[in-house]
Design a protein that fits this description.
The chain is an alpha+beta fold. 37% of the residues lie in helices and 10% in strands. The protein has 6 helices and 6 strands. The longest helix is centred in the C-terminal third of the chain and has 24 residues. The protein is globular. One of its GO terms (molecular function) is monooxygenase activity. Belongs to the cytochrome P450 family. InterPro entries: CYP450_71D (IPR052306), Cyt_P450 (IPR001128), Cyt_P450_E_grp-I (IPR002401), Cyt_P450_sf (IPR036396). It holds the Pfam family p450.
């Protein structure tokens, strides 16, 4: 959500797509989510910049354990054009691949966590985007949103995101 609040056009585009697909429906369902494209690009780009697990363990190979720095690879300018920029459109083509898709040597528990987490994130984000309009408080500007993370085993925001939500009146 923080990355989206930094780029209001991204929020607007995601809302427009969802509201067009749902056409005033009260609830977002899994069937609806199968039609959603742009929000999925937003989620992929968010995971690229803020991987849930920045360090990945690969299977032991010849007695060695390899640690993959997914956070660094996902921000490497050699692999990603404008690598520090939040640009969901980069995932429109299948040529863009997040690190967790690159190798079958990544532990399977990571794949399970990603699959389970993605379905929850997709539904939650769709509900938030569909049912509410979002703005920053106290005349805060999008460029003032700080997306700094705290270092650690998992990525978490260093600073809380404060936003103002107003109902979009879709029967909630």
């Amino acid at each position: 959500m923080a990355e989206m609040m930094k780029k209001p056009k991204v929020v607007e585009k995601a809302q427009t797509e969802l509201r067009r697909i749902l056409k005033g429906k009260r609830k977002v369902t899994g069937i609806d989510l199968k039609k959603v494209i742009y929000q999925n690009l937003v989620i992929k780009e968010t995971q690229r910049l803020h991987p849930p697990l920045p360090l990945l363990l690969s299977k032991r190979m010849q007695g060695a354990l390899c640690i993959v720095n997914a956070w660094a690879i996902n921000r490497d300018a050699e692999f990603w054009e404008d690598s520090e920029s939040f640009t969901p459109e980069r995932f429109k083509s299948n040529s863009s691949v997040i690190i967790w898709n690159l190798s079958d040597r990544i532990l399977s528990i990571y794949h399970l966590a990603i699959s389970f987490g993605l379905s929850n994130v997709e539904l939650l984000l769709a509900q938030l985007i569909y049912h509410f309009n979002w703005k920053l408080p106290n005349e805060m500007k999008p460029e003032d949103v700080d997306v700094t993370e705290t270092p650690g085993f998992s990525c978490s925001r260093k600073y809380n995101l404060c936003v103002i939500a107003t109902s979009n009146n879709h029967g909630i």
